[in-house]
């Protein structure tokens, strides 16, 4: 296989934009990816997205919304939904930690959006990549997976009722911290031991 633009030269890469084979003279590296000079010139001629820094900062206070404003749909939606679901789960299990969770999510959203904005303003390519590769996750859940998910959600809801709401009704509000801490510690310890015992070297 020879270079698309120089038939007598050896191929040194494949253009990340058009997919054509290119030689060393035609190849230009950008962000660690090879591009042919024609595709790179066309990319540089594209008008840069006009992003207002103040608007980006204000929108980033809602995790993921600032990313959506900058055109990063996958990352923004995953960030927004992940923060929402994480807050709901944490509210059912450890509502006292919401005071730390929410500011941490806002800080990370503002910081991450600012870093992406800087890369865009420098003309660098930013991949719209979320925290989880959706393509690697099966779109259709099996009946078993759906059942496990429902059991986990139901268990979390019941745990909140038993360890928070019921204890508050009985005037034992501070007891739920002890119960939750003990349960979380036991689960973390048991899960860690279970994972270590399941290592290939420990199986006989």
Automatic annotation (TrEMBL):
<feature type="transmembrane region" description="Helical">
    <location>
        <begin position="178"/>
        <end position="197"/>
    </location>
</feature>
<keyword id="KW-0472">Membrane</keyword>
<feature type="transmembrane region" description="Helical">
    <location>
        <begin position="148"/>
        <end position="172"/>
    </location>
</feature>
<feature type="transmembrane region" description="Helical">
    <location>
        <begin position="53"/>
        <end position="72"/>
    </location>
</feature>
<protein>
    <recommendedName>
        <fullName>B box-type domain-containing protein</fullName>
    </recommendedName>
</protein>
<keyword id="KW-0812">Transmembrane</keyword>
<keyword id="KW-1133">Transmembrane helix</keyword>
<feature type="transmembrane region" description="Helical">
    <location>
        <begin position="84"/>
        <end position="111"/>
    </location>
</feature>
